[in-house]
Fold this sequence. Notes:
The protein is α/β, with parallel strands linked by helices.
Amino acid sequence: xxxxxxxxxxxxxxxxxxxxxxxxxxxxxxxxxxxxxxxxxxxxxxxxxxxxxxxxxxxxxxxxxxxxxxxxxxxxxxxxxxxxxxxxxxxxxxxxxxxxxxxxxxxxxxxxxxxxxxxxxxxxxxxxxxxxxxxxxxxxxxxxxxxxxxxxxxxxxxxxxxxxxxxxxxxxxxxxxxxxxxxxxxxxxxxxxxxxxxxxxxxxxxxxxxxxxxxxxxxxxxxxxxxxxxxxxxxxxxxxxx
Length: 242
């Protein structure tokens, strides 16, 4: 392991796009479209785990750490549901945008410019999010090791990423970047994608047991994302700290 998770090239790439985080029709449009399905999955999993049922403060008292939070696309709706949210990101520009937007919406979210290996927290969290981030880090083994240390025993970690398959190369890179232009060319590097079994293997070494795993598939006709049995491109996994 390299004892560092920050990939400077990846950070610079997203820092250049930081001002577009909250534009639903900008460079992060695909993520805005993707947000409802991942938010709902996280919310329902937490309700199941912690017995939370009442709206609108369904996540009240749940402590969540969002690693690689970007501009706060997940932090804000989770905060509105009552969770106590901390977001960290290695890009200063991302954190600046996140802080500004949260203040504008009168939301109390603690944001820090940090990566998991240099973030200091006196407390552990009920939930840790690693959403669309592991495919952008320098050392995924070390990243998950450092991320897991913030999770309480029996807490849950979510990892959403891309599988390393021919189908993911065709759809996520050739299709999304070069043909449909949903994402800027160069957003993803197929060599940094990770197979579910490899992700599970790394997590097991860090006391994280796989609870369940779903593919996440885009419907061209409805324009929506849905959970699927097909994990050949996008997938989301839920782990429990043992």
